[in-house]
Structure formats: C-alpha cells, structure tokens
C-alpha cells in the first residue's frame, strides 16, 4: 500500500531560521518534502543554514520589519515553487531592560520586529493564499512571557501576548478563506544562544516540572502539527510548550 505524503508540494516561509528553533522547523519541513524559504537577518547564517538543508530550501536574508523583505519572500516562494501554503513568523528580538529606564528606541525596535514583522508577513501571506483559493496555515511564535510576568521583559512579554490576540482576531478575517492561524508559546529552550549561558540548562532544569528545558525539536514538533493538513480545524489557538513551567511559574 502506498501512503500519500500530505505535505508534498507545499511551500513554507520560516523567518528567523538561521539557527535554533527556526532552523529545526525548516529541517523538519524539508524532511516532509516541503519547499522552504529560510529567512534570517544574518545573511551568512541564512545561506549556511539553507545550504545544510538541500535544494528544497532557499535562503532569503533580510529584516522582517522591512516591508520590501516581506514582499520579496512571498514573491520568491511563488516564483520559485508556485505557491505559498505555510508561514511561520518565528523572527523576534529580546531586549531586556528595567521598566523604569527602558528607552523609546528599544521599545519601538521590539514592537517593529516582533509585532510589525509578524503582522505584515501574515497580511502579505494571507493575500497570496486568498488568491490561490486553496487555504493555508499561518503560525506566530509567542512565548511563555506572554502568559507569565518575567523580570526585565515587560516590552517583550507585551509583544508576545499581543501576537496571541492577533491570532484570535484573524480567525474572523481568515477562516472564510480556509486559512488557519495559531501560535506556539515556547518556554525555556536550549538553543545556540541560550547554551552560551553556563547556568541556563541547570537553572531551568530545576525550575521546569519535566526536569529539563525544551529542545528546538520539542518546539518544532508542536509547530509542524499546527501547520500541517492534520490541523485544518484548529485555529485561533495558542499552544504552550514549556514542560509545565507556566503551571507553577517559579522565576529564575
């Protein structure tokens, strides 16, 4: 018996994917024979990452808060692969800072990338998916800090909570076109960035009920389910992947 690949022929854009969670999402998508546009603001990182994933993956370096970059990614997907079916708005920045001294410049940059980049990428993608008249999936990357307070992350947490409300609101706009929109909210995760902190794994292993921080694969597994054809009746939802941390919420 031949089992049909439900992913084959689909095309995805994944932002902020040069390493960590974004790269793992791209890796899993290409394994399912999905064509991928891999974005990262670091050009060298984007090209290296895409090169590791084979011919189904094309690097598209650029800042997702730039409208030209967003338009270019969508055009690249359609020109190269013929359609755009999945978008994972993973790109985001974290600028720690005390509330009393947080600068307007830092605030605007966090909102510009985390909210503006995600909002307008979703808009451009949805316009293309609407033209195709074949549905699609959009996913925003939120965070547990959008659910629980975390010191020095007021602006970041605010931006992530806003993404979850954006997903809920877009259910109204996108459901008539059979486009799903959801979020995944990772907890502490071992990536290239966090592994540079000598105490990170030990601290979060102690604070996480499951006894360890997440791996990029833990997060990517959740993302792939929500953007897959198997989740076509799930929309407007946020899935927390944190090993139970938000259930008890001890701060480091």
Tags for this model:
8 helices; alpha/beta; 252 residues; Rossmann fold
Q: Explain this structure to me?
A:
There is one protein chain. The chain is α/β, with parallel strands linked by helices and 252 residues long. The chain has a single domain, classed as NAD(P)-binding Rossmann-like Domain (Rossmann fold), CATH 3.40.50.720. It contains eight helices and seven strands. The protein has a seven-stranded parallel β-sheet, with helices on both faces. Helix 1 crosses helix 7 and helix 3 (67-81) packs parallel to helix 4 (104-132). The longest helix has 29 residues, at 104-132. The mean pLDDT is 95.
Give the arrangement of secondary structure elements.
Blueprint: E1 11-14, H1 20-31, E2 35-40, H2 43-52, E3 57-61, H3 67-81, E4 86-89, H4 104-132, E5 136-141, H5 154-174, E6 179-186, H6 200-207, H7 216-227, E7 238-241, H8 245-248
Number of helices: 8
Architecture, according to CATH?
3-Layer(aba) Sandwich
Query: What is the typical, i.e. mean, pLDDT?
Result: 95
Q: What portion of residues belong to β-strands? A: 5-15%
Biggest sheet overview: 7 strands, parallel
- Helix content estimate: 40-55%
Structural class: alpha/beta
Beta-strand segment tally = 7
CATH topology: Rossmann fold
Low-confidence stretches: none
Q: How far apart are the termini?
A: 52 Å
Shape: globular
Using only C-alpha atoms, the radius of gyration works out to: 18 Å
Order of helices and strands: EHEHEHEHEHEHHEH
CATH class identity: Alpha Beta
Entry summary:
The chain has 8 helices and 7 strands; from the N terminus they run E-H-E-H-E-H-E-H-E-H-E-H-H-E-H. Helix 1 packs across helix 7 (216-227), helix 3 runs parallel beside helix 4 (104-132) and helix 4 (104-132) runs parallel beside helix 5.
């Amino acid at each position: 018996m031949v089992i049909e690949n439900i992913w084959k022929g689909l095309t995805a854009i994944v932002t902020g994917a040069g390493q960590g969670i974004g790269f793992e999402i791209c890796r899993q998508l290409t394994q399912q024979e999905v064509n991928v546009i891999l974005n990262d603001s670091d050009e060298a990182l984007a090209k290296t990452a895409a090169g590791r994933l084979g011919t189904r993956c094309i690097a598209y370096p650029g800042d997702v808060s730039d409208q030209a970059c967003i338009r270019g990614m969508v055009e690249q997907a359609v020109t190269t692969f013929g359609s755009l079916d999945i978008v994972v708005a993973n790109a985001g920045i974290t600028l720690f800072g005390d509330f009393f001294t947080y600068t307007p410049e830092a605030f605007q940059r966090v909102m510009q990338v985390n909210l503006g980049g995600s909002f307008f990428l979703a808009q451009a993608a949805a316009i293309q998916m609407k033209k195709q008249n074949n549905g699609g999936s959009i996913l925003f990357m939120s965070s547990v800090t959008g659910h629980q307070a975390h010191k020095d992350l007021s602006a970041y947490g605010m931006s992530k909570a806003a993404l979850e409300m954006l997903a809920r609101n877009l259910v109204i706009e996108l459901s008539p076109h059979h486009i799903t929109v959801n979020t995944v909210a990772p907890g502490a995760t071992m990536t290239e960035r966090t592994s540079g902190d000598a105490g990170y794994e030990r601290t979060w292993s102690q604070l996480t009920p499951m006894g360890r921080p997440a791996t990029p694969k833990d997060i990517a597994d959740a993302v792939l389910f929500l953007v897959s054809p198997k989740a076509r009746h799930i929309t407007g939802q946020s899935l927390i992947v944190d090993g139970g941390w938000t259930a008890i919420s001890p701060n480091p």
